[in-house]
Amino acid sequence: MTDLAISKRTAAPRIGEDTPRPDGVPKVAGTFAFSSDLHHDRMLWGGTLRSPHPSARIRSVDISAAVAVTGVHAVLTHEDVPGSLVYGLEHRDQPVLAPDVVRYEGEPVAIVAADSPEAVRMAVDAIAVDYEPLDPLVDPDLAERADPIHPDGNLVRRINLIHGDQDVRGEVQVEGTYEVGMQDQAFLGPESGMAVPAEDGGIDLYVATQWLHSDRDQVADCLGLDPALVRLTLSGVGGAFGAREDLSLHVHLCMLALHTRRPVKMVYSREESFHGHVHRHPARMWFRHHADRDGSIVRVESRLVLDGGAYASSSGAVIANAACFAAGPYRVPSAHIDGAVVRTNNPPCGAMRGFGAVQTCFAHEAQMDRLADALGMDPVELRLHNALAPGDELLTGQTITGTAPVAEVIRTCADHPSGASMAVDPMELPGGAGRTADPEHVVRGEAFAVGFKNILFSEGFDDFSEASCHLADGVATITSACAEVGQGFVTLAQQITREVLGVDDVVLLPASTVGIGSAGSTSASRQTWMSGGAIQEACGQVRVQLLERLAVKHGVDADDLVVADGRVVSMAGGLEIDLVEATAEPIEASVVFRHAPTLPLDENGQGDAHVSFAFSAHRAIVDVDVELGLVKVVELTTSQDVGRVLNPLQTVGQLEGGAAQGVGLAVMEEVLVQGGRIRNASFTDYLVPTALDMPPVEIAALIEEAEPGAPFGAKGIGEPPSISSTAAVAAAIRNATGLDLPRVPVRPTDIVFPEGAA
Amino acid sequence: MLNGRQHVGVSVTIATSLEDACAALTAEPGSLVLAGGTDLMVEVNRGSRRIGNVVALNRIPELAGWHLIGDELRLGAGVTFAEICDPEIAALVPALAQAARTVGSPQIRNAATIGGNIATASPAGDSIPVLAALDAVLELRSAEASREVPVTEFITGVKATCLMPGELIEAVRVPVLDGPQEFCKVGPRNAMVISVASLALLVDRSARRIRVGLGSVAPTPLRATQAEDHVSGHLDWDNGVPPRLEVVREFAELVASSASPIDDHRGSAAYRRHAVRILAQRSLTRVLNRVSPS
Ligand SMILES: Cc1cc2nc3c(=O)[nH]c(=O)nc-3n(C[C@H](O)[C@H](O)[C@H](O)COP(=O)(O)OP(=O)(O)OC[C@H]3O[C@@H](n4cnc5c(N)ncnc54)[C@H](O)[C@@H]3O)c2cc1C
After folding, report:
1. In CATH, what is the architecture of A283-458+601-752?
2. Residues of B with CB under 8 A from a CB of A
3. Is the same domain home to B188 and B271?
4. Whose CA is nearest to atom 18 of ligand 1?
């Protein structure tokens, strides 16, 4: 009747089509319910007493005055932790509540539940802790030699990566020492959640997080409960970027709720939030690059020290990334990378977008520019000359079997026309609204950077995602515990389902630990592939069942049937069944999706440890007021290897947002830590880019080469934009000023007093 | 001691006249005065101020609005920075409007008042250097009395003023000068940033004087009087012939040496001093480009 091929579809968007986020308008309009908006009529408020010292022994904790505050229902300490006293993502080394020592400023010591936030505050103030302050260990370079500040020692992990012939030397060598400051994820929605005690002795926890099942297992351990009794449901997440991969208030909320038998809600203040989650690791990095006269890199040597802060968090995986990707997306036949992440009394560091690759990208790209300079070669040419390609070996000895369009990424970005003219309005010049510069005070710089990292979990980790699809009455219902943290899984889950099943109506159930297994973490740019893959497979199985059922019923060949646009049609003609009718009897499938297995790194940091890689390039143009040391990033152009664009709208969003975080790290974002204490735990002083700091992001090209094994060939796209952007901006400032600028963020004084006068 | 400690409820008086407000302050002398709340609520949220009784000023008509009285501009204490950005005010006191534009974000400027900025008495308050350069006079008012105090005397230290209990800032009076004006502010972000150093430079043609106010480089409002004397004496007021480059440099040097900045996490003393030197040079050059014979 109707020609399927030319029927115009007005239906909901599928793969490759712009799909607006369902939470987009509500978030902008202020009607979206974040985890901090949770409410229960009988709820109590929770609060946390934190250590004012980066390092101290606790002589005693006296809660009697706090208990006596009117409206207080519970004051709990480490003595009240029912199960495991410690938790952690990779190593359970972090106390739920500090028992006898505190190892960082802001470490939780006691928790309170009361009728009102004000009563909580008064009770927290009334807890008397007798501390014996100790000299904090704050210099990561001294950590390995210092007395252990934790029973597990001060070295969290060392990767001593040895690759290729160690006797190779290059005719041209360049050396440099680089430093990256501590960046914060600076999400807008502070840690918050609510725990509700259940009749069965268990607990329901509503919380903004990145990995529900990992949280559940750690919480259950600490509560001494069967994991089945601990049920987590994802609440409205106000950004994550890695900062919600570790537990924060989870166990505390549950302890208070179980103790008081009342729902308990907690919301961190902004200041508390800076103490309440991990940050990006500050890094000190030394590099020596060896190359032949023709520009071929022959060897890279590097020493990396990452400051992990007081507890391990995901430091072990971060240093592995930093080391594995230390030389950048280039062919490097010989390397020695000595990477260590150490424990100090500084704030704990862990996951943040880019995960170890951001730090080393800043260094290896500065080295590439130095090398180009030493060789008298064009910096883009040098990068193209050494660019990795499929079939090449990584520093780990692993051969790239998937896509690696590095040269295309570089070329398209470098060749993209630039449109930035010089502004005249002081508002558009460095200094912005402060009106400090006129055009004659400004010099322009331009530079280029390339970066990459692994996507999905590495090093032999059993990485999987579970999903189910239930198709009934023409409506597909998808269950997955994938945490939507702003990355856009909600649209992808629906687009994929529509694409595979030909339905319009897709219901994505709330993410929780009930009725479905783990989706893994929303990190490592992995959910599009992993949970997207799980949904694709579950829907695929449902489709097969459906067609088989109809084939039997109508006596046709299942291979002759297709589903599209809400109908099942036989290609031979004659059969057309409405999906609503065809699925009156429900069909269901559940799958556990795994990516190809990886192997651990051996003692030389060698092995097929990674699944897939994503590459990006940025070209930055900056204006610098050299006399005042102020910078305006005027243009940012990028190309990225994406595998396949699933939602163009969201792809642009990720590339813009990631680049904004990269610009932030390049020119302003730093958690200032002095003597173990954070000096700028607020958005008054922890500065993130405003509209006057962030230029429009020009997307030169999205390179679509389908990645084998990935759903629709799509790679994750979340992290690369944060990797090469920082390096490009910093290099552009170098280009403008002629200064070395070996550290980000580049501060005004780094430009004004390059010799370190102040 | 803490047994039975209870938190107190908050009582808010929404005053609709100056008289009401003063009466409420006399009745409850410990009350907090609330204007736009953009400083006060930050302190409350941080826990460094506890809210008891509050007297809200934003419905008081006498505090809103501005008037030109002769060659003086009178701004009610409740005038917001968004209002000060208005072209009409900008034409009268350009530097004040420029300073207002550097305050926070649009949301903040819509709420933040000039009275609140002055009463907060932060060395980084952006209106302060302009008001200092203008020799602004504050009209203070309490239930019993009213008095006038120059802004430079009103602010007595970092976040300290001579405001008495029960007293309010009613208005600010500034002269409308003949000559171009400049306000510049340095911070490590291109907008919405706390000043690390700022400078207001005003030309007063009729008095043949350059006036300079500095921000964020001293605990109290600072005039660079030596620098003002020096440059004012070296300008060719009759013919507008630009001064020698040295004069500009000496002026900038004197401005820098009048500063007494501190090191903190926002900037070093050396950088702040350096920055006001550069701002002095640039803003003088800017106004000289515009002050030439008309
Ligand atoms: C995000 C953000 C950005 C900011 N950026 C800037 C900036 O760039 N530059 C800058 O200078 N400031 C900035 N501020 C600080 C603040 O906005 C200004 O100082 C503002 O002018 C305060 O005015 P307000 O009306 O909000 O005062 P409120 O917060 O209501 O009051 C501040 C203080 O003044 C007292 N007060 C208010 N009105 C009177 C009165 N009429 N008489 C006596 N006492 C009174 C109050 O009791 C209180 O102690 C920023 C604040 C925020 C939150």
Report:
1. 2-Layer Sandwich (3.30)
2. 1-7, 42, 45-47, 98, 101-102, 105, 182-196, 198, 265-271, 274-275, 278-279, 282, 286
3. yes
4. B117
